[in-house]
Each structure stands twice: as C-alpha cells, then as structure tokens.
Amino acid sequence: MTTTLPQQTTHRVAVPAPAPSGISLADPGPLGLAAFALTTFVLSFVNTGLFKAEPVVFGLALAYGGGAQILAGMWEFAKGNTFGATAFTSYGAFWVSFWYLTGHTTLAGIPAADVEKGIGLYLLGWTIFTALMLVASLRTTKVLTTVFVLLTTTFALLAAGALGSSDALHHLGGWFGLATAGVAWYAALAGVAASTFGRPVLPTGARG
C-alpha cells in the first residue's frame, strides 16, 4: 500500500522593507539668525534714544525672537549642533524673559536705583554668557564670530549703562545692537542663499 504524504506548503515570510533613513532637516541657522536680527534691530533703535516705543518690540520678542529661536535651537539639537542649539535656545529664552520682564512685571514700590541695578545685573549675566559663546564661535565662521563680538559689546555697554545710570552708554549700546543685527542678517542671508543656489554665494569666512 502506497502512502501518500500531504504536500508541504512553503510559507514565505514577508521581509519588511528597509526603514527609511532619518528625515533630513533643513539648516535652522538662518531662521534663528533672522529672528535674532529683526528683534535686536527694533529694540536697538529704541535703545539709541531716537524714539521711545519699547512696547513695539514685545510681540517680536515673544513670537519671533523668542519662539522662532527656541524652535531653531531644538532643530539644531536634532542635527547634532551643540553650539547652535545652545545659542539659539538661550537667546530665544532671553527674548521671552525680556518680554515678560518689561511688559508683565510691575516694579512699583522698588527704588529706582535698585531697579537699575537689577536690570544691570540681568544684562551683565547675558554679557558673561555671550562672551563664553564668543570663545566657542572662534571655531565657526568669521561672520558668526563678528556677531558675537558685537553682541558681547552691546550687552556690556547696556549693562554698564544700567549699573552706572548712564544714558550715553545705554544709547551707545543701542548703536552696537544695530550693527549686531546687520551682521546677523548678513549671516542669515548667506545661509539661505547657499541653500537656494546650491552653493556658497556670500563669503562668511569659513574656518577649516
């Protein structure tokens, strides 16, 4: 008697398709620089003493200087850029704190001299932080280093103006702030142009 064995069915296991590689993020640097530049530009005009309209900068400080820079910082973290992440997130937080300090904090009842010293201490802290970032920027580009040189000077003048109750130093800090904004805008344009043209267009003094 012949026994017929049941035919074996070969089961093919579906091999999953290879997982797509990680999403490629665009360079968030130009966004962070542009947000920083515009907010600094408007506030610095006020600091020069040319006109008094500080509330005009509040919306920029919260949405663009603050929100956009913090987002740029988070995207720099995702790209593995520690310097960009630290700088953009920190200065974004600076603008949010400025928005809160100047627009939502009452200093009534505090002696004017103490208020000036408190603001001076606040600005001095940012001067120190910016000076530290200046050191780190020496391994980036010459344009970015120039931004940090000007920004360190700006914060130092504003801090000295507040601590010494000097309008002259405060106004000078405003002019240096305008120069800072101009160079930051240039750096932002260089980054955007390099992306849209597919090659470097504006020199930034890249270091090896």
From TrEMBL:
Localization in the cell: Membrane
**Pfam name, any one:** Gpr1_Fun34_YaaH
- Where is it chiefly localized? membrane
Q: Which residues cross the membrane?
A: 31-50, 56-75, 119-136, 143-163, 175-197
Keyword Transmembrane helix among UniProt keywords = yes
Which superkingdom is the protein from? Bacteria
The cross-references to InterPro entries, in alphabetical order and at most eight, read: AceTr, Gpr1/Fun34/SatP-like
Keywords, in A-Z order: Membrane, Transmembrane, Transmembrane helix
Membrane topology qualifier:
Multi-pass membrane protein
What family does this chain come from, according to its entry? Belongs to the acetate uptake transporter (AceTr) (TC 2.A.96) family.
What is the official name of this protein in its record? Answer: Acetate uptake transporter
